[in-house]
Automatic annotation (TrEMBL), chain B:
<feature type="signal peptide">
    <location>
        <begin position="1"/>
        <end position="22"/>
    </location>
</feature>
<dbReference type="Pfam" id="PF13531">
    <property type="entry name" value="SBP_bac_11"/>
</dbReference>
<protein>
    <submittedName>
        <fullName>Iron(III) transport system substrate-binding protein</fullName>
    </submittedName>
</protein>
<keyword id="KW-0732">Signal</keyword>
């Protein structure tokens, strides 16, 4: 869309929008993404850097430096993405497609947790479930005579729950935007036409929100794998490490090259999951209807038909002009 | 003769105030440094302690006209910052007040990014070990601490090896040694004292130690056994102090922490106390040093500040040293008396680290800890 605005500026030579916009884009991406990345990659190709690659991937430390943090990170990512889809999706359905009272207020309240830093949520978990492993003052439950086991007070499970409670708002926002593009009237129309509930769900609602579901899953996955505060606060006492806490520890103790290597690998892991999500959307290209089409008044019959243009996960939320042919 | 030379020097200095060489500045007294420092007008120090704010106030009162900019920064960040700035040709900081000496010697002293400065005023009274390779201002600790309210009869641990027994499983705390250098230095010290650790093992268990084949010595075995006994790692010293020190706890853990944090017992409701009667030792003493940064923008003021931070000749060290004169920290100047509330330095069983030896062994132990976590 920036192409439209800048094309007004000049139509001649170097400043033509076709040349200018890509140059600006390349500059921005170059400075913000490529330059730092290249610098990091280069510094892992020195002698110390190559040692660090070996230490991380092929030494007796690999298990603790890479494999176990990787497992924890991926478990957290997948767990948080799944949890957020279920919770955010359910809330979105409730707010957009049912006659629940005060949907706007509910919608606003559902986005609030995202505005509270995740470390606050982790501290709140401690206020309730903290056990005597760290001595000092215990949480609510142990103070009232219940014994809280370590797996409930520290480690993967609490981190997972805290991160779902933090990131589900993101899934809610994305999914509810997609759902509102269907509108309750479309569903009612299908009901009037005699469609079964299962057919309405699988034939109308699911195809329309799938791109949004994948977008939400990608975003919450990326959020979970890069989150530092929650695993740092809840994981350390039972020595649970994720890639991001490992990265912090390496940089903090001056083992910069190892930190860089872990950072690069973390990028690769996240990128491949995001790419997978993108592929899933692209793979649906020929089998699902466009939300814009589906929402158009004359499109009831094409609820499971052809015709559509889902290029990116955000398509259903922003309806780019190309979709409105 | 001497006097006239001094005057000549003073005159020369007054005429060419900013051309004094480093060697000349090193030899100058406070009186001679002051006018030069006042001309520079400003001195910047990175400090490992937030108590630098108190020093700032005292310094500006003592030497009006010189602005002290004190920036509170962890040792690791100071090192990274100095290396990055000097590589980029930026000379913005004059003085480092820094611990983590093994890394400092490796990354800053060997590469001449910082140089020692021993103020002539105190040079005569300091032991050599406090003057090389950098000037030690005080000694701090990472030692075994316990809760004195829950243990009215003294420390519950008499031998470090007891910490590897079932009785202390999951009840020994430490700040993550892969996040804090001082704790890594503590583990390194265990590894550098294999004979003493082996002797203590025999005292605890009544039989000689057998060391795993992939380890070097009893110290490394102790580190492995400690981790195997569910050592609890925590993110920072605040958490550990609360955990060990909480007055209301009935069965509190023990842990390796900072002796001088005992000064906050009253304010925070803690009962932290040092376990000193421990075989073979209760931890380490490590130096906090003052270093002059290479190409410091204010070389005279920098020297004046280092001189100031060594304290005056009174028993407390005066307003410059008082912020650091707390129970559990130890001044290196013999004229400054140890705090009455603390174990005297001579009786403290902690091992004094040798930063050069520690630096050499640090990587191996860090890698060992990585496999144990």
């Amino acid at each position: 869309m920036s192409a439209v605005t800048t094309s007004v500026l000049s139509r001649r030579g170097f400043l033509r929008s076709e040349t200018l916009v890509p140059i600006i884009l390349i500059l921005v991406v170059g400075i913000l993404v490529i330059a730092p990345l290249v610098k990091i990659v280069l510094s892992t190709l020195t002698i110390e850097g190559l040692d660090a690659w070996q230490a991380v991937l092929a030494s007796k430390m690999s298990e603790n430096l890479w494999w176990r943090p990787l497992l924890n990170t991926v478990l957290l990512g997948i767990g948080v993405a799944t949890g957020c889809l279920l919770m955010g999706g359910f809330l979105a359905w409730l707010v957009v497609l049912t006659d629940v009272p005060a949907p706007r207020t509910l919608g606003l309240l559902a986005t609030l947790p995202f505005m509270i830093p995740s470390f606050a949520a982790a501290l709140a978990w401690g206020a309730l479930f903290r056990n005597s492993r760290l001595g000092g003052s215990v949480g609510f439950f142990e103070a009232n005579g219940y014994i809280v086991p370590d797996w409930l007070a520290w480690g993967l499970l609490p981190t997972l729950i805290v991160l779902i409670a933090h990131y589900y708002s993101l899934a809610f926002t994305v999914i509810s935007a997609a759902l509102s593009s269907i509108g309750a009237d479309l569903v009612e129309a299908a009901q009037v036409a005699g469609a079964k509930r299962s057919r309405i769900f699988f034939g109308i609602i699911l195809p329309v929100v799938t791109p949004a579901l994948i977008a939400a899953a990608s975003l919450t996955f990326a959020g979970a794998v890069s989150n530092f505060a929650a695993p740092a606060l809840l994981g350390l006492p039972v020595r649970m490490q994720t890639l991001s806490t490992r990265l912090f520890g390496m940089i903090e103790t001056g083992q910069t090259e190892r930190g860089f290597v872990i950072a690069l690998l973390l990028i690769v892991v996240s990128a491949s999951f995001l790419w997978l999500g993108e592929r899933l959307v692209a793979g649906r290209k020929n089998s699902s209807p466009s939300p814009a089409r589906a929402a158009a008044p004359n499109a009831f019959r094409s609820a499971d038909g052809a015709g559509h243009c889902l290029q990116s996960p955000s398509c259903s939320a922003c309806s780019p002009p190309s979709c409105r042919r | 003769m001497l006097k006239s030379m001094k005057w000549a020097l003073f005159a020369a200095v007054a005429i060419l105030p900013l051309t004094a060489s480093a060697a000349e500045l090193d030899a100058m007294s406070v009186k001679e440094l002051l006018p030069l420092a006042q001309k520079e007008g400003k001195v910047t120090v990175f400090s490992l302690s937030s108590r630098i704010a108190k020093v700032e106030k005292a310094f500006e009162e003592a030497y009006p006209g010189i602005d002290l900019v004190g920036i509170d920064m962890s040792s690791v960040k100071q090192i990274a910052r100095v290396v990055a700035e000097q590589t980029a040709g930026v000379n913005a900081v004059d003085v480092l007040y820094i611990a983590d000496t093994p890394v400092v010697y490796e990354d800053l002293v060997k590469t001449n990014r910082v140089v020692p400065y021993i103020p002539p005023r105190v040079a005569g009274e300091l032991a050599d070990e406090h003057k090389t390779p950098l000037l030690t201002q005080r000694l701090s600790t990472k030692v075994l601490m316990y809760n004195e309210v829950a243990n009215p009869n003294g420390a519950p641990v008499k031998n470090l090896w007891a910490l590897t027994t079932p009785e202390w499983k999951g009840r020994v705390l430490m700040v993550d040694p892969l996040q804090r250098g001082e704790l890594l230095d503590l583990l390194v010290e265990f590894s550098l004292r294999p004979d003493e650790m082996a002797k203590a093992y025999e005292a605890q268990f009544g039989k000689p130690i057998s060391v795993d084949s992939d380890l070097q010595g009893a110290g490394e075995q102790f580190v492995r056994d400690l981790f195997a006994n569910d050592l609890v790692l925590v993110p920072n010293s605040d958490v550990i102090n609360k955990a060990i020190g909480d007055k209301t706890a009935n069965n509190p853990p023990v842990g390796f922490a900072t002796y001088s944090d005992r000064r906050d017992n009253e304010k925070e409701g803690w009962a932290l106390q040092v376990a000193n009667d421990v075989e073979p030792s209760n931890g380490i003493l490590f130096p906090a040093v003052l270093a002059l940064v290479d190409k410091a923008p204010s070389p005279a003021a920098a020297r004046l500040l280092i001189d100031f931070m060594m304290g005056d000749d009174s028993a407390t060290g005066g307003p410059a040293f008082e912020p650091f004169n707390v129970a559990g920290d130890y001044a290196v100047r013999p004229s400054i008396k140890d705090n009455a509330d603390s174990v005297p330095l001579k009786e403290l069983k902690a091992w004094r680290i040798d930063p050069v030896k520690t630096a050499a062994a640090r990587k191996r132990i860090a890698d060992l800890v990585l496999t144990l976590q």
